[in-house]
Design a protein that fits this description.
The complex is a heterodimer of chains A (about 400) and B (about 260).
Chain A: E1 2-6, H1 13-22, E2 28-31, E3 34-37, H2 46-50, E4 56-60, E5 74-77, E6 80-81, E7 84-85, H3 88-103, E8 107-113, H4 117-123, E9 130-135, H5 144-158, E10 162-166, H6 169-181, E11 186-187, E12 192-195, E13 201-207, E14 212-217, E15 224-228, E16 245-249, E17 260-267, E18 279-283, H7 293-303, E19 306-309, H8 311-315, E20 336-340, H9 346-349, E21 357-362, E22 375-378, H10 381-395
Helix pairs in contact in A: 5-6, 7-10
Chain B: E1 2-6, E2 9-11, E3 17-18, E4 25-26, E5 32-34, H1 36-52, E6 55-61, H2 67-76, E7 80-84, H3 94-106, E8 113-116, H4 128-136, E9 140-150, E10 154-160, E11 164-171, E12 174-178, H5 190-195, E13 202-204, E14 225-230, E15 239-242, H6 245-258
Parallel strand pairs in B: 1-6, 1-8, 6-7, 7-13, 8-12, 9-12
Antiparallel strand pairs in B: 2-5, 3-4, 9-10, 10-11
Helix pairs in contact in B: 3-4
Amino acid sequence: MGKLFIHHDLVNDDTANKLVKICPFGAIEYKEGKLEINAACKMCRICVKKGPKGVIEYIEEPVINIDKSQYKGIAVYVDHVNGKIHPVTFELIGKARELAKKVNYPVYCIFPGFQIFDNAEELLHYGVDEVFIYDYLELKHFNVETYTAVFEDFIINKKPSVILIGATTTGRSLAPRVAARFKTGLTADCTVLDIKENSDLVQIRPAFGGNIMAQIVTPNSRPQLATVRYKIMNAPQRTDEANGKITVCSMDTNKLKSNLEVLKITEKEVEENISEAEIIVVAGRAIKTKQDMSLAYELAEVLGGSFAGTRPMVEAGWIDAKKQIGLSGRTVKPKLIITLGVSGAVQFTAGMKSADYIFAINKDPKAAIFSVAHYGIIGDIYEIVPKLIENIKKEKGLVGEMPKYAAPSTRN
Amino acid sequence: MKIIVCIKQVPGTSKVQVDPITGVLIRSGIDTKMNPYDLFALESALRLKEEFGGVVNVITMGPPQAIEIIKEAFMMGADDGVLLSDKKFAGADVLATSYTLSQGIRKMGDFDIIITGKQTTDGDTAQVGPEIAEYLNIPHVANVLKILEVTNKDITVEMDMPETVEIVKIKFPCLISVEKDIYQPRLPSFKRKMQTKNKEVRVLCLKDMEDKDEKKYGLSGSPTQVERIFPPDENADKEIWEGTGDELADKITNKLKELKFI
């Protein structure tokens, strides 16, 4: 922790203007010979590191260090609906085992629910050391208040160093509530996780909404919370034998009272989920009209895959939000992905870069998408894609049928 | 009904880039706007007010220029606005931001409901809403798809879950985060722009807060720290193809065949 200190004796028009220019957030102001840092400052300290030497100094403030050795173990939240475990849970167990091995910690699962003992047993086939279940009628359905109460009980009793939570709609509601209760750090949508010898979790995620990755640590608070989206980490192989144990926890049921009442639950219609698709064609901003979306749709169709889009396509209303790839949409890990005129902001690539083969078509040779693509094709989608569709039809013997494809929006 | 809406000023574009050699952020101008998801929160609040009466007040934290989005909220129909702005709030992570906002909200008096957008377009975390609720010790529901019923003591909403849609009743005071498209946001009105041109925005700084402990705000109050920022990894193993449309289409076809996708 610390603050920025301006050495006013070193401030002159030259150094001041350099500093104003270097700040990416416009937080440094130079008015009437006086240099000031305003509330837009994000404490990135670029002014200290890259600015004229010595003008702005970072002053560390003394902090009382917590005793990190009091906290051990890496816990994974078991995301579930009526005991049916969400697959992100197994992916997080895989990552937790990797991290735990480095610092010699146990891997825990925390599982609140009702009549879930049998479901908990399944977790023991994935290399978990101990599953803590909280089995109460009040926990039958996800309720952010009662589930946070369970976490409070678990954290106080087990003192885990790290808690990993799937960034599902429930996880994204629960994790911040738990973090605020313990006044500790939470990093959303991590794409890379590692752990230091001193047990500090290294969390990497796209930041500032742009083409930047940030490495984030929680150096003086425990537990350390992070959420990770589905299809980012790899689930371990299920083993035939079960290892580890299940511990049934009891807690004060007065803490399971809530101001929230679930009145009705409706299963969603099963719909085509792009997270599961093996081949995906993505429509990007280079597509000029809604009608032209048929380029993406038709290419997906001839390849036997799904089609998806970027955020601008969703904002334009040309594609359903459920088919959006990226941090504010879905994460996908297909075998093949072909992007059509997608520029490739980190917001988007974070949601697809673990695909096995990435083909990117874009007119702009400088497009960021080419840094993640395995095959970067510099060209106009309007010139390439119709011919490509024709080629594939020929290869597959589809010529002559010439099916008429409907616009994508009518097919949702 | 007393409604508070949390809003944020965000960069107008998402084209912030890092110079790969110097590691310095390349500034893309100071173009800013109201976080687009907040428009849905504000619209929800205005509809509740129109149906049940009451007031809609907005709150934001940011640099002095963030006053612009409060004025925009006035043009849409908000009654009052508070800007939390202080150098000591700088460098705040999710926890410190949530704490600062919860302190600011305490200065706004009693309320029935706080409405937030789904997430911001610059942070993309969707975490601040639930953390504010925790600090204010009130229940919250995220991913609200629809508002179904309102009484004088609670609100019933439809909430999106991974595999289900749930109908949930929450007692006041509470916080809800609404999904995009819950209602179509209205445009700022010129008439209201004229009416609210000189309307004052309350600006609060650290010394106005109940809790004046510097260590709980800004960088000092942030348990997470950014160790470094860097451009995303380049994919080392890649090919770049150029040519005419037909040549490229053939090349792609052959590669897809080789990889056995066709």
